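Quick log. Single chain, no ligands specified.
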Amino acid sequence: MKQSMVLLVGLAMSFAISAETYDVAASYKAGDEYTGALAFRVDEGKSATYSDEQLQNFSVVVNRQSDTQVLVNFDFEIDGYQSEAEVVLDLDKAAELSFGDQSFTFMIRNYKS
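-> predicted structure:
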């Protein structure tokens, strides 16, 4: 029983140590009325969410795919405009996504402490 507990604790610690942290810079444009830019830090697999009186929701989850790519899930909602997507993006390279009259730019980097 003790060995099982030690093994479980060791596995949990290895998962915690291996989790990445990312710096995310994002911008959005919805129609001609709404533009904005956000920058935040997010731990791998966790959701980073922002909202204010104009922007109802901007949330991002980042998961590592390889040494050079991440899987990004994002939700966006502002005054009748809404988008959600799951995309694979290259680290350290700006990526632009367009959905009708909405566009988004992402730059994701590994956080270096």
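The first strand starts at residue 21 and ends at 30.
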